């Protein structure tokens, strides 16, 4: 009887986990490493398989931005209240504005039957790792070198010298964290976009297929267990 109850709990728990959908995909890396390009290529090739979690922010919309498309635009009081109520997976403040990923934003993508993709920084990764809500796949994208990253950021021509140096300093710290064994499931050096994308795609597609197999196996075990219980 003890074994039966234990098996029942583990089987139902696994079944419920499968029912929640595929594990989310977290992409992390310094600004300028090409994360957005890799995500766009993934969505362009497999639009029915992936969905992007829309972040919240307290900054004002820029020209052409729409609420619920680029971001969910809110105010500091409301967002802080939601954070305090445990409705956010991660959040951070940049230049006086708050940014964060809500649980609902991820759930909306999962309910559509897609892999939810999150583009967040190292601080966000650390926050998510403290929870048991997501259990995502973690992928870190790094530049070939800091000098190459500096070149890319300068070519954007969107930074002052002071902000550029701050980004490079933060990037060095992020890379150190990203390269530590065990912090990410996959580390991609983006020295060539096509090569980096193939590595990302192969990893994610392989994981989806593995989870499909796990889901089918778990559902079969669940059905067999329910049938066996009916015979007792």
What do you see in this structure?
The chain is α/β, with parallel strands linked by helices and 232 residues long. It has a single domain, classed as Rossmann fold, CATH 3.40.50. 53% of the residues lie in helices and 17% in strands. It contains eight helices and nine strands. The strands form two sheets. The chain has a five-stranded parallel β-sheet, sandwiched between helices.
Can you lay out the helices and strands and say which pair or pack?
Blueprint: H1 2-19, E1 25-28, H2 35-45, E2 50-52, E3 56-57, E4 72-73, H3 76-84, E5 88-94, E6 97-102, H4 103-111, E7 115-119, H5 122-129, E8 137-142, H6 146-156, H7 161-178, E9 186-189, H8 193-231
What is the CATH C-level name? Alpha Beta
Helix content: 40-55%
CATH architecture: 3-Layer(aba) Sandwich
- Fold-level CATH name: Rossmann fold
Number of strands: 9
Give the biggest beta sheet.
Answer: 5 strands, parallel
Mean pLDDT: 85
C-alpha Rg, in Å?
20 Å
Overall body shape: globular
Q: Which regions are unreliable across 5 or more consecutive residues at pLDDT < 50? A: 1-19, 217-231
What's a quick, concise take on this entry?
With 232 residues, the chain is an alpha/beta fold. It has helices spanning 2-19, 35-45, 76-84, 103-111, 122-129, 146-156, 161-178, 193-231, and strands at 25-28, 50-52, 56-57, 72-73, 88-94, 97-102, 115-119, 137-142, 186-189.
């Amino acid at each position: 009887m003890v074994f039966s109850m234990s098996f029942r709990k583990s089987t139902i728990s696994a079944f419920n986990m499968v029912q929640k959908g595929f594990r989310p995909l977290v992409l992390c890396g310094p600004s300028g490493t090409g994360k957005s390009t890799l995500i766009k290529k993934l969505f362009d090739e497999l639009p029915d398989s992936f969905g992007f979690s829309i972040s919240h922010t307290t900054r004002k919309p820029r020209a052409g931005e729409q609420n619920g498309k680029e971001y969910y635009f809110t105010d500091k009081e409301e967002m802080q209240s939601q954070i305090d109520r445990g409705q956010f997976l991660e959040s951070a403040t940049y230049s006086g504005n708050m940014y964060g990923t809500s649980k609902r934003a991820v759930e909306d993508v999962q309910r559509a039957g897609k892999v939810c993709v999150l583009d967040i920084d190292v601080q966000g990764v650390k926050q998510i790792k403290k929870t048991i809500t997501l259990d995502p796949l973690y992928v870190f994208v790094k530049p070939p070198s800091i000098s190459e990253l500096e070149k890319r950021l300068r070519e954007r021509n969107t930074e002052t010298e002071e902000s550029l140096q701050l980004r490079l300093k933060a990037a060095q710290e992020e890379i150190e964290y990203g390269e530590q064994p065990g912090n990410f499931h996959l580390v991609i050096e983006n020295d060539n976009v096509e090569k980096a994308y193939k590595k990302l795609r192969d990893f994610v597609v392989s994981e989806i297929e593995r989870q499909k197999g796990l889901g089918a196996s778990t559902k079969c075990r669940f059905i067999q267990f329910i049938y066996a219980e009916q015979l007792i």
